[in-house]
Write a structure and sequence with these properties.
Oligomer: heterodimer
Structural class of chain B: alpha/beta
Distance between the termini of chain A: 33 Å
Shape of chain B: globular
Largest sheet of chain A: 4 strands, antiparallel
Number of strands of chain A: 4
Number of strands of chain B: 10
Number of helices of chain B: 6
Radius of gyration of chain A: 31 Å
Strand order of the largest sheet of chain B: 6-7-8-3-9-10
Chain lengths: 301, 217
């Protein structure tokens, strides 16, 4: 084993022993970091889940094309051929006004209302399955509107687009929150390391006098920052996971009412690892700043 | 090999601790630096491991110029010096054994090798049986011996001791002096600063007598 690696391992073991020696302080520090990180992390989890749902919906949005009342059967047939030939339309299904009324009668809530109608107020319509980017869809919308006998074009995905912009807002909020709390984490580490440096003042001074290099003296503090960042990150993941389990209980109830099996799903392994790396880096940064700032107080030179 | 040539040390604030000091200490020498309190003994000893830097003249230690030495090179210089401090500078939150292990941690010895060396050093100063004890529980005669063990554990070529016997009774002081003689006999250069003339009664060592920052003729 190389000297460098051995010293790293020895320092890491020393750091872990020190953390274990004062479990209350360690636990408090780790929970402060954990709670601070859990807020943006939880926000991110919700966003990630909602956007994956919205992506599923937007990936093949339905378009309803309502026809004018006076459309003849022959015109409908011509239109159907034309719609099926339009770029971006995957399938076109014709729903006659009679059929639409029948469908409406079948629904529990509206049956009574429909019974009171003397004439059928519903138009003939096509339901299109479409695909393509947002720009393609906008072009398609214009194209459909310009067709003869087309009265109204409705994108069922309009609300999804609204949701998308809400999600954008959410993402920005989470980003701001994450930045603020990342600064908080750096500050917490900075302070912990400062206290640790003061506690080990004698050791640092004696070490310097008998041949410790700067790198050697700094190393345990970097390790402490890193380990604290990782533990805090783990705590945040645990907090978010716990909250998710609790929330999912209620979400499943709610989703069932909407005939959906939607539930929050947790980060995959890679995302969790990336997050831990990030929190470890923040811990390291905090200790780096603290060490650079405070170790000069003990310069014997 | 330690050589001072026309060395002066003026502290910030204007106090002139050493003036125009020139001498050389050859490898394997045993040298006493004597003088009253404030004569500059501690300052002289601090110049050798670059704890202080000379303000004029040249200090050479093993061919390295202390005055112009880069900060990053200082730890490596100190690893070849055994330092015994007047106030011992022991770490009171760890036991005797771990205190002696400290210098070996810097140099990256394996734990097994380091432990062997630490026990050898403790054995030389007669503290092997007390390796689990904490420094506060050591007697006044044992604490300087622990400091010596820590200084020699890296097998330095030069041993520097500042008033190593200041707090000791005559018997303990004699024991400590015998240890220094023993190290000197195996080729270690030993430099001891002391105001206790009685220490020199056993041998006829070389004496550098300081008075107001200069060597007495």
């Amino acid at each position: 084993m190389s000297t460098w690696l051995r010293q790293q391992v020895q320092t890491l073991l020393l750091t872990l022993r020190r953390l274990a020696r004062d479990p209350v302080a360690t636990l408090l520090n780790v929970s402060v970091i954990g709670v601070a990180l859990a807020l943006p992390l939880g926000g991110y989890l919700v966003l990630q889940n909602v956007s994956s749902v919205s992506r599923q919906i937007t990936s093949n949005p339905q378009v309803s094309v309502f026809l004018a009342r006076d459309t003849e059967k022959s015109e409908i047939a011509a239109l159907e051929t034309r719609l099926k030939g339009t770029a971006g339309v995957r399938a076109a299904r014709f729903i006659s006004r009679e059929q639409a009324l029948e469908d409406l009668k079948k629904s529990d809530n509206l049956a009574d209302v429909v019974a009171t109608l003397r004439t059928n107020p519903l138009p003939d319509a096509f339901v299109l399955e479409t695909g393509g980017s947002a720009a393609d869809l906008a072009q398609l919308e214009a194209q459909l509107k310009s067709l003869p006998k087309v009265d109204h074009v409705q994108f069922d995905s309009a609300w999804v687009r609204r949701l998308e912009s809400l999600l954008d807002l959410g993402r920005t909020t989470v980003l701001i929150l994450a930045t603020l709390l990342a600064c908080g984490l750096v500050a917490v580490t900075f302070n912990t390391i400062r206290l640790q440096i003061l506690t080990q003042k004698d050791e640092i001074e004696v070490g310097r006098l008998i041949g410790a290099t700067d790198a050697f003296i700094r190393r345990p503090f970097f390790h402490l920052g890193l380990v604290q960042g990782i533990l805090g990150g783990l705590a945040a993941l645990a907090i978010v996971y716990g909250c998710m389990l609790i929330l999912n209980h209620s979400i499943l109830e709610l989703a069932r009412l909407y005939d959906s099996d939607f539930a929050l799903s947790f980060f995959d392994f890679n995302d969790s690892l990336a997050f831990l790396t990030f929190s470890a880096l923040l811990g390291w940064l905090g200790s780096y700043l603290s060490v650079s700032r405070h170790l000069h107080a003990f310069e014997p030179l | 090999m330690i050589s001072f040539s026309q060395v002066g040390k003026r502290y910030r604030g204007g106090h002139e601790a050493l003036r125009d000091l020139s001498f050389a200490i050859a490898d394997g020498d045993l040298v006493f630096i004597t003088g009253r309190s404030g004569a500059g003994k501690s300052t002289l000893l601090k110049l050798i491991p670059a704890i202080e830097r000379p303000t004029s003249g040249t200090v050479l230690v093993n061919g390295q110029n202390i005055g112009s030495m880069r900060r990053a090179a200082v730890p490596y210089l100190r690893r070849n010096l055994g330092l015994i401090f007047q106030d011992q500078k022991l770490l009171y939150d760890r036991n005797v054994f771990d205190n002696v292990m400290l210098p070996l941690a810097f140099t990256g010895h394996s734990h097994k090798d380091a432990a062997r060396r630490a026990r050898a050093a403790l054995d030389k100063v007669g503290l092997l049986a007390r390796e689990k004890a904490y420094p506060v529980t050591l007697s006044g005669g044992e604490q300087p011996r622990l400091c010596i063990a820590r200084a020699v554990v890296n097998r330095p070529g030069i041993l520097l001791a500042d008033e190593p016997t200041a707090s000791l009774d005559a018997t303990s002081a004699d024991e400590v002096m015998q240890m220094f003689h023993a190290f000197n006999q195996v080729g270690v250069t030993v430099v001891i600063a002391t105001h206790d003339e009685a220490l020199m009664r056993h041998a006829k060592p070389r004496v550098l007598a300081l008075s107001q920052g200069r060597l007495d003729a």
